[in-house]
Amino acid sequence: MEKKGPSRTAIRRAMRRAAHHLLDTEPKLLADPFARAFAGFSSDEEFLTAFKDIPGANVSWLRFSFALRNRLAEDELADAVRHGVTQYVILGAGLDSFAYRRSELMRSLNVYEVDHPASQAWKRDRVAALGIEVPSNLRYAPIDFEHTTLTEGLAAAGLDRNEPVFFAWLGVTQYLTREAGLRTLKETATVSAAHSALVVEFIAPPETLSDNEAALFKALADASAKVDEPWLSFYTSETMKENLAAVGFDEVALFGPQEAFNRYLVGRTDGARLPGYFRMAKAAKGTLSCPSALPGLDRSGSGQRRPASTGHPQ
User: Fold this and answer.
1) Domain interval for residue 214
2) Residue 309 within a domain
3) 314 in any annotated domain
4) 281: left (phi over 0), alpha (psi -120 to 50) or beta
5) Which of 55, 170, 224, 238 has its CA 20 to 30 A from that of 10?
6) Confidence (pLDDT) at 45
7) Could you read off the pLDDT of 117-128 as tens digits, one per residue?
């Protein structure tokens, strides 16, 4: 990643969320009115002109995955808050806007944004330039995952290791070496002496995909490599499940394209779907007073669906 500026992929992720907010039909998976401004654009017209040039801009359903992963993580967080979680850590936060648009959850949380120091400094400057007030319960933890431990960074930011913690790790694992990824997974399981939960997104290996999906994978990976942010690591669902169990999580639920469609996209008429490489998982260690699992999924991680609501738009 560039050392003297924001992550280019973080900007593109925010642009895809902004495009979902501006272009896609109702119901929105995620209402993110901050994404366009956080990405550096002063008007919708300026944004839409620039958006046409990013890879896959004309693939309307592709941006659904960028909105859906945040929606899923925040739905699970909301459930955890109802059961007593008061600390939320966003790993690789990029231009995430949770702290500014989810005031009903912010009232119950201390939020910690973890990211590379260069990206974090750029975002903070951007928020200041926009004149947006930073919530007093939002903390920053500047960390380079390849060189600094998560535990050290969160301790410096004030995380209480004796209280439950909920982690979201979205759109990051493919940019890390497997060694750095596994080390971070282990720290999410051990950073708190109380209950820990993690929602993580990861990318399936190209050899497990159909030809069309593998071609999309290659196009996106090539585009990322061109801005010096190459994709390095991919995981099958079973491999990620094994990794999560190995670092200490005792409950794992898997969430792939079909589960995503069943939970959030059933009944839409705009062709929304998820790319074949899309994978997420929820893992938990310890218990709360009433622990939860991904609605509609078997807690064993088999991916078998139970009857569940498709959710409500935010």
Assistant:
1) 8-285
2) no
3) no
4) beta
5) 238
6) 97
7) 988 999 999 999
